[in-house]
Design goal:
Chain lengths: 326, 444
């Protein structure tokens, strides 16, 4: 184990996979000479050279299409979106080509690409750069969607994503790049896609959250423990495929659930999770499942309004108290 | 230890008073929670009363033979050392047997049960989960078997019991009657802790096994009679043995009735007509033509009815009830459909008024919806006959020397031979058949 930042863990994952498999190569804006807008690709151009770390023009649809074509011919491209909000420009390539190629070619072509980059609300990045982009992708059959919350997950899940035979959307967070955590040194360490993780064990309520909201839920659990409310925090880690088993198992134990998500609530991840719970654990529920979500509004630039849009600890506590009838 | 007030339970919506038939325990006897301490007579049936408290039967307030209003204190169970003077002082004296004040407000003790105010004292007060800081502990009593009217669940004025899915599941598994549980969640929702509190706060009532297709751990279970089952058990031998039944079976071509029904049901703004509705109408018309079948044997006379009041057998989970659709001879098919459906629905929800349960001159029992082809029913005295109706089925039929398909229904008329003979019943059946096979007759 080594303690490293989330950013370093991602960098290590890329480095290890590029060493392990010569078919893996990177492409994106400013990832080479500039070492990446958020320095995730630092030093990789130097180690692997221009053929494997390619700076591209500012044209997401173009270089994503290049990556898909390369993947169809046997390579394993990792595309960086400078922020995931820019992936909207490549949506047609990702949704119509990457996600559907295997299906529409009758399995003749699979598309083992990873599209990665930071997404979700950060610090005053305003309406166009703060979106929880996962919701644009997890709706699409054929795509896997990962949201890793810790340095360990960042490394283990990115390596699994690169080794996966199909397209994986891998959305990091600007706010998490600097956090530190223990990461296994083993170059063969991976975390399988589709497995949730229980971050904190508890008995009274299941709180489902990922990324920044997962950390806020942990703080909330700490505060509520003083009052005698024991929260179990479940981090899905992979949103599609979702680890229903772990999620439902926890709800069956606690009989209550609160879903916290940074994105807007309408048709958000929380809606889907509530549906899963209702379909699978209705008779185990002692209270309606609550959602604490971002407000249904574009992200404001003003700091105070940005905070008002985002689920606060107070809102999470209030929802937990409601489902616990406390 | 807690003092348990034993009160007169409310066993039906119409019930205002109940009579103590006998006490199975005397003052000074030890009483276990769940033990039967008395038998109570209501308008519908005799009921065993369970004590919910454990201790000694300290005081019998209402002696055997006397009546008490619903909710009124009839006995006190407590430990020998408990001071029950306060409880006794709060209770009114029992009414002597004949002169009854039916007012339910006459007797209840001053410390009101811990409940939202209802219109009447609750049948069986909620079992408090934990000792409540009231001057007098919450009274506990529960009757075995019969269910309080669905219209008045304890403590819930609205009717439907609101409970979380988990609370319902636990209640079903452990036999807790949710209507007797106080809900602590929003809008009185019963949640898990309320059910668990009710379970730990008092012994479980004996209930019929839940309808789960699993093999129970025990070899058998003696299920107490519900009030309705007790009535059936009491009445059926009196209906079957002394009444000499004979049976007439006939097959009716229902093709045209079926078509007519479909046409009627396709009309906008018209009530939906069922096969039963058509049979009711047909019986009413046929009975007008054959009043000798619409007759009651009375010993030295036979009462021939010129009004047709038809009892409709309605299956309930725990028995059978026969609400009466009056004056069918004067009602249109649409009226029969609307009023019949209302009666049946209220019968299923146990919201019938007492007069709606008596006075039939003829009955119909239809088991067609259960795919029964043919059966014979037991006459419900003093009625003289009952019609048992099987399913309408598409079967091969021979018509004009050819085999085709047709809708057929088999019916069996059970007749009281003291009041009528085979030929009378047969003529009635002939006309009934004609009415159903030429169903436009039902409309004119």
């Amino acid at each position: 184990m080594s303690v490293m930042t989330y950013r370093e863990a991602l960098n290590l994952a890329l480095r290890e996979e590029m060493r392990r498999d010569p078919r893996v190569f990177l492409l994106g804006e400013e990832i080479g000479v500039y070492d990446g807008a958020y320095k995730v690709t630092q030093g990789l151009l130097k180690e692997f050279g221009e053929r494997r770390v390619m700076d591209t023009p500012i044209c997401e649809s173009g270089f994503t299409g290049v990556a898909i074509g390369a993947a169809m011919l046997g390579l394993r491209p990792v595309v960086e979106m400078m922020t995931f909000n820019f992936a909207i420009l490549a949506l047609d390539q990702i949704v119509n080509s990457a996600a559907k190629m295997s299906y529409m070619s009758g399995g003749q072509f699979n598309v083992p690409i990873v599209v990665r980059g930071p997404g979700g609300p950060a610090h005053q990045l305003a309406a166009q750069h703060s979106q929880s982009m996962e919701s644009y992708f997890y709706h699409v059959p054929g795509l896997k969607v990962v949201r890793p919350s810790t340095p360990e997950d960042a490394k283990g899940l990115l390596k699994s994503a690169i080794r996966d035979e199909n397209p994986v959307i891998f959305i990091e967070s600007e706010t998490l790049y600097g956090i530190k955590g223990e990461v296994p040194d083993d170059a063969d360490f991976t975390i399988p896609l589709g497995r949730a993780k229980i971050r904190r064990e508890g008995t009274d309520v299941t709180v489902i959250a990922y990324m920044g909201m997962m950390y806020r839920a942990l703080e909330t659990a700490e505060a509520l423990a003083q009052e005698g409310i024991s929260c179990e925090i479940v981090d899905p880690r992979t949103l599609r495929p979702m680890d229903i088993e772990t999620l439902i198992g926890s709800v069956r134990k606690t009989h209550r659930a609160v879903v916290v998500e940074a994105g807007a609530g309408f048709a958000g991840m929380g809606s889907e999770i509530v549906a899963f719970i209702t379909e699978n654990a209705f008779d185990d529920l002692d209270a309606p499942v609550e959602r604490v979500t971002g407000a249904n509004a574009p992200m404001p630039y003003a700091k105070n309004l940005e905070q008002a849009k985002t689920p606060s600890k107070e809102k999470i506590i209030a929802a937990i108290r409601r489902v616990c009838y406390a | 230890m807690a003092i348990t007030k034993v009160v007169m339970p409310k066993l039906s919506e119409a019930m205002e008073t109940g009579r103590v038939i006998k006490w199975l325990k005397e003052e000074g006897d030890k009483v276990e929670g769940g033990e039967i301490i008395a038998e109570i007579e209501t308008d519908k049936a005799d009921i065993e009363l369970e004590s919910f408290g454990t201790g000694v039967l300290r005081k019998i307030m209402v002696p055997a033979g006397a009546r008490a209003p619903v909710g009124g204190l009839i006995a006190v169970v407590a430990e020998p050392a408990d001071d029950i003077a306060g409880v006794l002082a709060g209770a009114a004296a029992p009414s002597p047997a004949p002169a009854v004040s039916p007012s339910p407000t006459a007797a209840p003790p001053p410390p009101a049960p811990p409940k939202p105010a209802g219109t009447a004292p609750p049948p069986a007060p909620a079992r408090a989960a934990a000792p409540v800081p009231t001057p007098v502990p919450a009274p506990r009593s529960l009757v075995r078997g019969p269910e309080p009217s669905a219209g008045e669940p304890a403590g819930v004025p609205g009717g439907r019991v609101k409970a979380s899915p988990l609370a319902k599941k636990i209640a079903a598994q452990s036999g807790v009657d949710l209507r007797l549980v106080h809900g602590s969640g929003p809008s009185g929702r019963i949640v898990r802790r309320d059910v668990l509190g009710a379970m730990s706060g008092a012994p479980m009532p004996v209930v019929a096994p839940a309808k789960v297709p699993t093999v129970p751990g025990v070899e058998y279970q003696d299920v107490p009679l519900s009030s309705i089952r007790a009535v059936i058990a009491k009445r059926m031998p009196l209906a079957k043995s002394p009444v000499p039944h004979f049976y007439l079976t006939s097959e009716i071509a229902m093709d045209r009735a079926w078509e007519l029904r479909e046409e009627l049901n396709a009309l906008d703004g018209q009530p939906k007509i069922s096969v039963t509705d058509m049979i009711v109408k047909a019986c009413a018309l046929a009975l007008l033509q054959h009043p000798e079948v619409n007759a009651s044997f009375q010993g030295d006379t036979i009462r021939v009815h010129y009004r047709v009041h038809i009892g409709l057998a309605v299956a309930l989970d725990d028995g059978l009830i026969t609400p009466v659709l009056r004056n069918c001879e004067a009602r249109s098919l649409a009226e029969i459909a609307v009023e019949g459906r209302d009666l049946v629905e209220r019968a299923r929800n146990r919201r019938l008024r007492a007069p709606e349960l008596s006075g039939a001159t003829f009955s119909i029992s239809n088991l067609g919806m259960f795919d029964v082809d043919l059966f014979s029913a037991i006459i419900n005295p003093p009625e003289g006959a009952i019609l048992a109706v099987g399913a309408v089925k598409v079967v091969p039929v021979v018509e004009d020397g050819r085999i085709g398909m047709g809708r057929r229904m088999q019916i069996t008329l059970s007749c009281d031979h003291r009041a009528m003979d085979g030929a009378m019943g047969a003529r009635f059946l002939q006309d009934l058949r004609r009415l159903l096979e030429e169903p436009l007759r039902l409309l004119v």
